[in-house]
Each structure stands twice: as C-alpha cells, then as structure tokens.
C-alpha cells in the first residue's frame, strides 16, 4: 500500500490511534539506525521509499548503505548512514536528496536550506586523549558546522544545540575505538540498548 492510500484508509476507518501506534513502533525501530539527510519521519519514510538505491548511488562519499535483511523485511534495503566508519559531508547541493524521486528524502520549501539534525554526537571524555593529558587535535578542522565543535583548554567540546551529528569529527578521531559517539535521535523505549553504530557496521 502506498503512502497516500495508507493514510486515506486510516482516516476513513477512524484509525488515527492505529496510525499513531504504528508510527511509534517505527520510531522505536529507527533508534537502531540513522537515515540520510532530510528523511521523512520513519513511518512516512518507509511508505515512500522504493528501495531504488538512487540516494546510495548519488553519494560521492559512500556514506549511505542498505539496511540488512536481518533487521526485518519492513526496513531491509532501505538507506541509512554509516556514521560508524564515515561522516556525512553535508553536500551543498544535497545530491542524495535530489536523487530521491518518491520524496522519502525531501528538501524543505525554503530559499536557504540549512543542514538538518542527523544524529546526536558526544565526546567520550574517558577515551578522548586531551582529557587524559596528551595533546591531540586530530578532529580540529573536521567540523563543517560553525561553532559546533569548540575548544576549551585544548579539549574538544560539542555544542548540542549547533551540532547536526554528521560524524566527520568521529571519522577524524585517531583513538580506537573513536572517542566520538554518534547516536540516533530516537530514544529507545525499552531496556534494549542496541547501538545505531553497531547496526551501521
């Protein structure tokens, strides 16, 4: 069933509660991966995405990949960002979004388009070298968003309000495992703590 018919049937059957429940389950599942820029909410995205791979082919940095069949038929083959190993370059012309004909990825109707919030990023201070003494600075200059990655006494800090979670600072980090943690914007509603980074691998 396509997106339009799904919502038409839901409202014709007074099924708003059902749609709300399905959308909640979809958001919960989405806590295990990170969608490409300007993705619709998870339920709308799944109804719109045709698994055509156009966004994957349009990405010059190979950051977008297909979700595995082991995650279930509903999401298998849909695109996600591999922010475990790479960072989204927030391309000015958004080729992945413009390649999406079914509008699962869709630019906002605005004269100036700013980078969307993709994920949440934080620094693991127990792993980050400058927090234990040695100088590092490997992530300096990696952030494309002004004032998102700040420095305090030669120690990096992430401004949550400004950071979009592109993961480029994580890609630049020389610590193994990386001292930059990238997490889905969706919070799990259960005790399960499956990391979106592990799923992306």
Can you lay out the helices and strands and say which pair or pack?
Blueprint: H1 3-12, H2 16-29, H3 42-48, H4 54-58, E1 64-66, E2 79-81, H5 95-98, E3 120-123, E4 149-152, E5 155-158, H6 168-172, E6 180-183, H7 196-200
Antiparallel strand pairs: 1-2, 3-6, 4-5
Account of the 3D structure:
The chain is of the alpha+beta class. The chain is built from seven helices and six strands; from the N terminus they run H-H-H-H-E-E-H-E-E-E-H-E-H. Strands 1-2 form a two-stranded antiparallel sheet. Strand 4 and strand 5 (155-158) form a beta hairpin. 32% of the residues are buried.
Radius of gyration: 18 Å
C-alpha end-to-end distance: 31 Å
Average pLDDT reading: 86
Count of distinct strands = 6
Helices, by number, come to 7
Task: Tally the structural domains.
Answer: 2
N-to-C order of helices and strands: HHHHEEHEEEHEH
Assess the beta-strand content as a share of residues. 5-15%
* Overall 3D shape: elongated
Biggest sheet: strands, sense, closure? 2 strands, antiparallel
Poorly predicted spans? 188-201
Structural class: alpha+beta
Estimate percent helicity.
10-25%
Strand order of the largest sheet: 1-2
């Amino acid at each position: 069933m396509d997106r339009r018919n799904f919502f038409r049937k839901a409202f014709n059957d007074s099924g708003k509660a059902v749609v709300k429940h399905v959308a909640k389950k979809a958001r919960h599942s989405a806590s295990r991966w990170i969608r490409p820029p300007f993705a619709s909410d998870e339920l709308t995205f799944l109804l719109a995405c045709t698994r055509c791979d156009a966004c994957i082919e349009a990405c010059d940095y190979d950051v977008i990949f297909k979700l595995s069949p082991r995650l279930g038929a509903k999401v298998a083959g849909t695109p996600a960002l591999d922010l475990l190993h790479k960072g989204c370059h927030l391309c000015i012309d958004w080729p992945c979004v413009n390649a999406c004909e079914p509008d699962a990825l869709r630019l906002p109707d605005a004269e100036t388009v700013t980078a969307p919030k993709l994920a949440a990023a934080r620094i693991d201070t127990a792993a980050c070298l400058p927090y234990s003494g040695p100088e590092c600075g490997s992530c300096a200059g990696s952030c494309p968003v002004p004032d998102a990655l700040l420095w305090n006494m030669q120690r990096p800090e992430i401004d949550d309000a400004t950071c979009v979670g592109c993961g480029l600072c994580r890609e630049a980090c020389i610590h193994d495992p990386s001292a930059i943690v990238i997490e889905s914007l969706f919070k799990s509603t259960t005790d399960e703590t499956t990391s979106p980074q592990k799923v992306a691998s």
